[in-house]
Amino acid sequence: MTQDERNKLYVARCLLDGKMTIREAAEVLGLSERQVKRLKKGVREYGEAFVIHKNRGRKPSHALPDEVKTLVVNLKELDKYLKANFSHFQELLQEYESINLSKSSVYRILVAHGFTSPKKHRKVKQHKRRKRKPQRGMLVQIDASPYTWFFDGIECSLHGAIDDATGEILALFFAPTECLDGHFQIMRIVILNNGVPLAVYADRHTIFRSPKTDKLTLEDELNGKMAKATQFGRAMAELGINLIWAKTAQGKGRIERLWGTLQSRLPVELNIAGITTLDEANAFLATFINKYNNKFAVEPMDPQPAFRKLESNINLDHILCIKETRQVDRGSTFSYGGVYYRVVRNGKTIPIIPNAKVTVLKSPRFGLKVQYSGSVYEVEALESLPPKQTAPKLPKQPRKPFRPAKDHPWRSPTAKYPLMFYDQSDREIIEALYSSRLAWR
Q: Best label site of 157, 288, 329, 365, fewest CB within 10 Å?
């Protein structure tokens, strides 16, 4: 008997003995006078057992069978479900095991058997959140997360892009480390599937922001001098996308919270699917993205998207690549990475003006190409530099000494020795000496 039931029994006995009125009993127990009369009548007819609840010791009719509870516990102990949090585990039971239970039921079963969720809710800190953008495509947050995404313990980086207005994942891509090609891949997926966004929000990694940006002096900034853009920044400028650098991780908190969710869910999904390689994982990500967006994405305030359609004359692969400038040597050749290349088209060398500047395009998708005068050409690696073509040398002609004529002004004594003497005798002596010199010649 509980303490509340003991109090009801004591008051009922007082009523039967005439020691307490109905009104006083109602005030003591906090019940209505009608309930007190019912209590008094029940104790008088059925005794002490009347104050005890009739379902005491009986299993409710809507309770889960013990077999179901045992099955849930046994499934949670399996390797493929062991690291799943309680909420994710409830979804996996419904998807793979056809067990439809509420989250609270799964939580009570697992807690009663000593399980603890790997993803507990921490105390929420009160802070002012930035409002979502009203339209899809107005702001896309990108980042990469190094983590042991596979249960074999090998760490790799997952590159991702999330829309700020809806919270939906736009692209995911696995790579061994965070790299420029990984971010080019997610931007390619975003643009091909949705269009060109207005702005991209990234951190201050050297992939997005040159480290020399902070080294500009005040005088340089006043003169309008800017640090050289990174390859990613150059590509975004060519596509007309505004690149914004976050000063703190909290600034791009939407994608930071996404990593927490993915680190809890994605490894379990990869393990269930039996995926152990990056190529298999990248092929699986499209299915996972659809399932994630169906569950977590929200509707934007404005249904009209802000994504801009990619123009048909733009080759996206020729923008999302590494671009470097080289100077063409003789024979339309240039050096890149310690190797000489020749600019060709359909196997024929393209004539290019010597010492002209060309842009080298490098990407894992197409290898190496060259852009010159608005056109893109193929290149051909050379085993050795072609021989230098020089004009034939003419035989040297013997040089003949030049002898001025006899009447040449140089032979005039007044031209060779200007008459700057005021004494007539000195002049006569000089003329005589010069005449004798000419006669000797």
A: 365
User: What are the backbone angles phi and psi of residue 406, rounded to the nearest 5°?
Assistant: -70, -30
- Is 233 in contact with 243 (CB distance < 8 Å)? yes
Residue 432 CA to residue 427 CA, distance in Å, equals: 9
Taking a C-beta distance cutoff of 8 angstroms, is the pair 354, 347 a contact?
Answer: no
With a cut of 80, say whether residue 268 has pLDDT above it.
Answer: yes
**Backbone phi and psi for residue 358, each to the nearest 5 degrees, phi listed first:** -125, 160
Query: For residue 402, which amino acid is it?
Result: F
* Encoded tokens for 293: 């967006």
Phi and psi for 326 in degrees, rounded to 5?
-135, 160
Q: Does residue 44 surpass a pLDDT of 80?
A: yes
Contact yes or no for 206/178 (Cβ under 8 A): no
The residue with tokens 């790579």 is 175
Of the candidate ranges 62-76, 77-91, 100-114, 413-427, the one whose mean pLDDT is the lowest: 413-427
CA distance 287 to 252: 25
Other Cβ atoms less than 10 A from the Cβ of 422: the count is 7
Residue 275 vs residues 88, 281, 369: alpha-carbon distances, Å: 19, 6, 35
Model confidence, pTM: 0.70
**Cα-based torsion angle of the residue sequence 278, 232, 250, 130 in order, rounded to the nearest 10 degrees:** -110
Q: Which residues neighbour 354 within 8 Å (Cβ) at sequence distance 6 or greater?
A: 328, 329, 330
pLDDT of residue 421: 44
Q: Which two tokens stand for residue 155?
A: 């760490």
Can you tell me the distance from the alpha carbon of 281 to that of 185, in angstroms, rounded to the nearest whole number?
A: 15
Using an 8 Å Cβ cutoff, are 306 and 138 in contact?
A: yes
Of 43-52, 97-106, 331-340, 395-404, which gets the smallest average pLDDT? 395-404
More confident residue, 221 or 349: 349
* Residue range 234-257: mean pLDDT, rounded: 89
